[in-house]
Design brief:
This protein is mostly helical. The protein has a domain at about 25-125. About 80% of the residues lie in helices and about 0% in strands. The protein contains seven helices and no strands. Helix 2 runs antiparallel to helix 4 (about 60-70) and helix 2 packs across helix 6. The termini are far apart. The model has no long low-confidence stretch (mean pLDDT about 80).
């Protein structure tokens, strides 16, 4: 019984290592597929948010990606299916995409905050809430720097 258990465990472990899908001839590199999936996430967000802009500019997200990365739909599907058959690799790819999206989101929020702050200062200046320094104070400040 013990030998049978060991044999079954060995067979199970060997079957887990076996590749489900053979590597396609025109496999897209991990770095490139990561970039493609990142851009696809951005384009899908844009499509769901402002589909009119994409439509008015005749932008089809998938065709745009295929053109940008010089690939075709079959190459993309085969490569994506191959990586999906390797759960750890696929998880690493999507983790990298997710980290990149988080980083970009953080950068965009910081930029938006800066822009909003500048707009607030402009509005206050137009209403006269922020008072400008008198020219004499500016001249004195410049004289002390020289």
């Amino acid at each position: 019984m013990k030998n049978l258990c060991i044999l079954l465990c060995f067979v199970f472990l060997c079957s887990c290592v076996q590749k489900l899908i053979d590597e396609p001839d025109n496999l897209i590199s991990k770095e490139k597929i990561t970039n493609i999936l990142y851009d696809l996430a951005i384009l899908n967000a844009a499509k769901s948010t402002n589909s009119i802009i994409l439509r008015n500019n005749d932008i089809e997200p998938m065709q745009f990606l295929f053109s940008k990365y010089k690939i075709d739909s079959i190459q993309f599907v085969e490569s994506n299916r191959y990586y999906a058959s390797l759960p750890k690799e696929y998880e690493n790819i999507y983790t990298a995409v997710n980290e990149r999206l988080k980083s970009e989101n953080k950068r965009m929020k910081g930029a938006k905050k800066s822009i909003d702050s500048l707009k607030t200062i402009e509005r206050k200046a137009k209403r006269g809430v922020i008072k400008k320094k008198p020219k004499s104070a500016i001249k004195k400040g410049n004289d002390s720097l020289e």
